[in-house]
Each structure stands twice: as C-alpha cells, then as structure tokens.
C-alpha cells in the first residue's frame, strides 16, 4: 500500500495518520495550542519552508482541523484557528508531550509543565476509562469488533495485551 492511500484503510489510526502523520503537522498543532495563529509566526517558530508550511496548513484546513479567519483585508491575510475537531486533538498532543517528558528529557526535566486552571496544580495526563474512571493500561484493554468493521473483516494487529 502506498502512503497516500493509508487514509482509505478501515483503521482509525491509519485514517488519523493520513492527516496528522508527519512531523511538521504535529508541530503546527502544538503551536496552535500555544495560541499561535499567523503564518509568519508558524514559519519563524518552526523554520519550515513556506511551501511546506502552506501545504500542511491547507491540509489541516481541508480536514477541518483548522479554519482560516481573515484579520486583514488589503492585502488579504488570515489567521489559522483550531476548530472543534482540532481542539479534540489536545489529549493526543498532551499524551505525546507526557511520553517525551518521561523518555526523552535527557535528565533535564520537562521544557513545559501544565497547570490545571480549576485546581491550580501541575498535572500529567492519564488515560482513564470513560465509564468507571479507573486508569487504563494496555493490559486492561481488549479490542473487539465495532460497528464500522465490515462483516468478515478482521481487526488489524493482535490484542492490546500482546
């Protein structure tokens, strides 16, 4: 299978990767969650070429992860703002951050820490069951066929316990 067709797989991870599956896209989203909105700010922060940045921003707009909002008429200029679909990626970015802080900090500690505004305390994201609110690890999960799995189609991979 070619990379450009990965989004056609009947797999939620593959479909997500068809939009998010490159380093620049996740860094653009990181910056968007840090309130960056303008093309030149993204470009200066990331050092990515203007062509690549424009391509990634356009893909995120087409996927309804970001929306273009005009902020100047002459010449026309736009900001890129997270949509509801884009804001739903926040737990993904926090999970990647937490993993990087744990395994890749080279002993220096986290470059950023996160404070929950309601309680005022620093926190680390955790995965919990939406039903019982207990912490979830790979050993606690068993994938089963969902309504989107075609009859006779096998779920990919082995169980989460492997």
Determine the oligomeric state from the structure: single chain
Number of strands: 4
CATH class of the largest domain: Mainly Alpha
Instruction: Report Rg.
Output: 19 Å
* Average predicted local confidence, pLDDT: 90
> CATH homologous superfamily name of the largest domain?
Winged helix-like DNA-binding domain superfamily/Winged helix DNA-binding domain
Overall domain count: 2
Percent helix, as a range, is 25-40%
Q: How large a portion of the residues is in β-strands, by DSSP E?
A: 5-15%
Element string (H = helix, E = strand) = HHHHEEHHEE
Gross geometry: globular
How many helices? Answer: 6
Q: Summarize the biggest pleated sheet.
A: 2 strands, antiparallel
User: How do the strands line up in the largest sheet?
Assistant: 1-2
- Alpha-beta content class: alpha+beta
Any overview of this molecule?
The protein has 6 helices and 4 strands; from the N terminus they run ααααββααββ. It has 162 residues and is α+β, with helices and mostly antiparallel strands. It folds into 2 domains: 86 residues, Winged helix-like DNA-binding domain superfamily/Winged helix DNA-binding domain (Arc Repressor Mutant, subunit A, Orthogonal Bundle), CATH 1.10.10; 53 residues, no CATH class. A two-stranded antiparallel sheet has the order 1-2. A two-stranded antiparallel ribbon has the order 3-4. The chain starts with 11 loop residues before the first helix and ends in a 39-residue tail after the last strand. The C terminus is likely disordered.
């Amino acid at each position: 299978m070619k990379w450009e067709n990965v989004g056609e797989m009947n797999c939620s991870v593959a479909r997500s990767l068809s939009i998010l599956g490159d380093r620049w896209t996740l860094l653009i989203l990181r910056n968007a969650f840090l309130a960056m909105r303008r093309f030149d700010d993204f470009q200066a922060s990331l050092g990515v070429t203007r062509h690549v940045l424009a391509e990634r921003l356009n893909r995120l707009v087409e996927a309804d992860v970001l929306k273009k909002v005009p902020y100047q008429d002459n010449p026309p200029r736009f900001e890129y703002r997270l949509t509801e679909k884009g804001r739903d990626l926040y737990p993904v970015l926090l999970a990647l951050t937490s993993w990087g802080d744990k395994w890749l900090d080279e002993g220096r500690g986290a470059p950023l820490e996160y404070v929950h505004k309601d309680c005022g305390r620093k926190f680390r994201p955790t995965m919990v069951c939406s039903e019982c609110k207990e912490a979830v690890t790979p050993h606690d999960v068993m994938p089963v066929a969902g309504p989107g799995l075609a009859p006779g189609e096998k779920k990919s991979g082995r169980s989460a316990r492997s």
